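Section: Multi-chain targets

For targets with more than one molecule, the full set of components is provided together so that the structure can be written out for the assembly as a whole rather than chain by chain. Components appear in the order listed by the source. The example entry contains two components.
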Amino acid sequence: MTSQANNPQVEENYYQILEVQKTASLVEIRNAYEGKLEETQLEAFAAYSLLPEDETEEKLLHFSQAFMTLANPIARAKYDDELQQGTVSVEMQPVTKKEHLTKIKKSVRVKTKTVPLPPLIPPKKAKAEKEIEIKKSVIRNIVEETHAERLGNYQKLSAKNELAEESLEEFYSTFKTHGGKLSYNGTILQQIRKIKSVSLEELAQITCIRKTYLRAIEDENFSKFTSEIYLKGYLLCYVEALQLPKEQVLTDYVLLYKNSF
Amino acid sequence: MKKKIWAIGGGKGGVGKSYVAGNLGILLAQKGHNVVLADLDLGGANLHTWLGVSNPIKGITEFIERDIPDIKKLLIPTDMSGLRLISGAKDGVEIANMKHTQKRRFVTALRQLDADYIVIDLGAGTAYNTVDFFLLADSQIIIVIPEPTSIENAYRFLKNSFYRQILHNSEKFRMKSTIKNILRKDNPFNINTPKQLIAYMNQLGGNAAVFIEEQQQLFMPSIILNQVRSEKEKKIGVAMEKACLKYFNLNVKISGYLDFDETVRQSVIDREPLAKNSLESVPVQQLSIICEKLLQEEKERTKKNNLLSQLAL
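Its structure, encoded as tokens over all components, is:
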């Protein structure tokens, strides 16, 4: 009936999935993700009893993956390079690194350019324009700062993820020796986070999700979430940041949520 | 002007069918139309109470059982000019299982009434009875509130209505047994939704494809979203349109929104229809907009049907 139905195989890139510009800021990306969660929630509600549940789940996985990639400065830069080149290959990596460098240099140059030069501005117009110019540069500074900070945060996190591999394995094996099957719940998620020595604050910074929601996930305080879709949307980011098996955590945890009614 | 029948249904009880039907009837009468309100909420009819008509002594049963063969004699005047009522108050379960011919006879009689508009308040449920009256109307209106149960019932109502429509119309195309087979719950074609049915018929091609195309065109109910509490909830209307197209392959249009309003409940308790005295109130203003929209949609439909019949000649 529609053209979309005719070619469902058209792959959208992450920017298209979240409907943001390639130059979108972190705030814009975060808002776009929340917007998508809301949209999914609305669609699922309006199509109640018609929409198969896996379809919603698949959509959420799409959105969260797009969001977590674009919110992660390292992953985003890599993804942008991949996009530009069509596909990735191992040999190309040094080239992409170089491009990356020139990109950074460019952005530095742009930044210095925006510093207003008072003598060049005619006195009458000066006030308003100056104010705009200052506002712009303030915003840019914040973005630059957080960008550097974010880069650091992600590097720290990936180091922590890596370092904790062994102790995590030990943690998992204690379940096996007790003969029980591991089923993810709030307490286990919290234990894993602590094993990785990632604080809630760090996690909040990384995922752009408010600490109260992250804590609610660990406390299984389901009343915090307006719907299952928000819960899943946030949980997916939590899981992604700590590099846990997405599908299993989602299945185990959502079962807890559903049984709580 | 040819008289028009508007039917108000929607599956779930307590979503405001009687409220909308009653007030739309009053608004149409206020526009100078001659209106008959027919209370077909058989078993739960109460429009009379709400309109201040006490305990009607005659109703639809008398007509169906031919005690009163003249439908005009069922008309009960109200204290609003241009508005009369046909009550279903005395009618219970027996009448809720009318034969299709009886229903036809009733609707044919309704069309012969001296009235411009006949507004039918259908009961809750998606039983054949309700669905059949719904399908016999010119404007088919479904009331939904933003709650999962109401939404689910609305889809069930739509699905049953569409199935029922094609079953009724299949005889002309000599396809009754085919359709009957497909509509069986354990049909071998694994068809569970109108969309699958449409796809199957199109695959059959020929007469079947022509038939189903025509039935899709013919089926065009409107939705009114009632008890809307926020802008977010309002978006459910358009989302339902999209869902109907996506999962049923059917065109269902949203015709308007009614905000949740405490005064509505009070008006029902007080038995004071809002459209009667509170013309300036928000609920009545919103109902007026919907009324205009429905009149407009009806005009377009008439135009389209005239054009189609001209082409057929």
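Chain A has 13 helices and no strands.
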